[in-house]
Specification:
about 375 residues, mainly beta, 5-stranded antiparallel beta sheet, globular
């Protein structure tokens, strides 16, 4: 991640506070993550065939302002898990609703929570942009079984709040009942408090809103194929899975974002790689390549609405959606992600995966730089008539 700018303490402590209740928001139909490993997929059996006509919408709570910590000795270091029960279904609609809270913004919070002496940020403020992911049924040991099902791939804003509403209808109809939900934020502290808080973190609230009723599609299976970080340019072994009988259509959701900390590499417009690298991804169904692409986001500048904060020495300008980020960094194109945004899945409907029986999937990323990696997940949905 590019580093956020360090505001001058005297400037922020002398702010002439303006009332700005606006909250940066990002919505999309993404998926959720954890750092699992590639493995064979299990079979996800769909939900029931009927819904009570008198059923009413309800919500299942997962997290209530849970604190995701940035120090390894603290509870909920970088992740937290919750158990939840969707019920038997089927569902007309299911929505994962997430609110990410921060102590960094609005800046008037600093009056009651100033930076410690010699530091530039409130101690509990994480001013960076971080990986922000939700995964369903993430295994405790990534090598022991199939990966989890990523529901959301997002990046936090630079120190700002975030609101997400994610359509998870097909996942819930394909996997009704009890589950674990894992939230991961790759947060770290800066002990000196210069570029981020010395004990930074984030607060996460999440629930699933459920509307019982006729499902929009007949989900026969939800098959997780990959959920991991890949820093090896060598070819991966294919993941094997079975398409269930009765399948009439299939959908592959491929979520991918590039990250890394090396100072430079071939094919990268800026440092660090792989954050600023455009790489070729090849996808294979049953060992036959069905697409090749270069995942890239060049719309990050849309997440920088310039705002001005009054204060001593004339105040300063900042991005309303990414308040603690250097404006040039917020706007920079990246390897298929932007600060403060969901990265939606890339979607295909490979015709080979309509035929019931054994199949395989793999992907290949060319020329990954040493020290860089790509966060990759893949989930296959099988639908009946």
């Amino acid at each position: 991640m590019r580093r956020s700018f360090a505001c001058v303490i005297s400037l922020l402590l002398s702010i002439a506070c303006s009332s700005d209740d606006s909250t940066p928001k990002a919505t999309g139909t993404g998926g959720a993550g954890g750092a699992g490993g590639a493995g064979g997929a299990d079979s996800g059996v769909g939900g029931g065939a009927g819904a009570d006509a008198g059923a009413v919408p309800y919500s299942v709570s997962a997290f209530d302002a849970i604190r995701i910590q940035s120090k390894s000795e603290q509870p909920n270091f970088q992740r937290a898990s919750a158990t939840l029960d969707f019920g038997a279904g089927p569902f007309q609609k299911a929505t994962l609703v997430v609110d990410l809270a921060t102590t960094c913004f609005p800046f008037e919070k600093w009056k009651a929570n100033p930076p410690p002496p010699g530091q530039n940020w409130p101690a509990d403020c994480d001013a960076f942009d971080r990986n922000f992911e939700f995964v369903l049924d993430r295994p405790a040991d990534p090598k022991a079984g199939p990966p989890g099902i990523e529901l959301v791939r997002a990046i936090t804003p630079f120190g700002g709040p975030m609101h997400l509403e994610i359509d998870v209808t097909d996942v819930v109809n394909g996997r009704p009942g009890k589950h674990t939900l894992d939230v991961h934020i790759g947060t770290w502290s800066d002990g000196a408090g210069k570029v981020s808080g010395s004990n930074g973190g984030w607060n996460v609230t999440a629930r699933v809103d459920l509307v019982p009723g006729a499902p929009p599609r007949k989900v026969l299976a939800v098959l997780p194929l990959f959920d991991h970080s890949n820093g090896d340019p060598a070819p991966l072994a294919p993941v094997k899975f079975d398409v269930p009988a009765g399948t009439k259509a299939s959908r592959l959701e491929y979520r991918v974002t590039g990250h890394g900390g090396v100072t430079g590499a071939a094919g990268c417009g800026m440092a660090p790689a792989e954050e600023f690298c455009s790489r070729t991804h090849a996808l294979y169904a049953d060992e036959i390549e069905f697409d090749s692409l270069n995942p890239w986001r060049d719309d990050c500048a849309t997440l920088c609405t310039i705002a001005h904060q009054d204060g001593s020495n004339g105040g300063f300008d900042y991005c309303k959606e990414n308040p603690c980020g250097a404006i040039s960094s917020v706007k920079a194109p990246r390897a298929n992600w932007c600060p403060g945004s969901v990265t939606p899945p890339l979607v295909w409907e490979p015709p080979a995966w309509v035929t019931p029986g054994p199949h395989s999937f793999r992907y290949q990323v060319d020329d990954i730089a040493s020290g860089g990696s790509w966060r990759v997940s893949a989930v296959l949905f099988a639908f009946g008539a």
